[in-house]
Design brief:
Length: 80
């Protein structure tokens, strides 16, 4: 997958953050988004995920910053 994504410019638009919770040094967000992809070499922009949702788990670092530990995502749109 990585070689394919390396050839694209990605544009992710977050539509809403549905939930945010913190449990000690772990935090999570649940959101909805749209993903658009445009070839770096030029060409038409495609809407790769028009109606996506994600659940992201963050871990607090020793310096107090947060880093993504897991990011799970999928589409609400049925396959064609």
């Amino acid at each position: 997958m990585k070689p394919g994504f390396d050839k694209m410019n990605l544009d992710i638009t977050i539509h809403s953050i549905e939930e945010t919770k913190v449990y000690g040094d772990l935090g999570l967000t649940r959101c909805t988004y749209t993903l658009k992809m445009t070839p770096k070499a030029g060409g038409e922009t495609i809407i790769a995920m028009p109606d996506g949702k994600a659940l992201t788990l963050y871990e607090r670092q020793s310096d107090g910053s947060w880093k993504i530990k897991y990011d799970i995502f999928n589409s609400n749109t049925p396959p064609k």
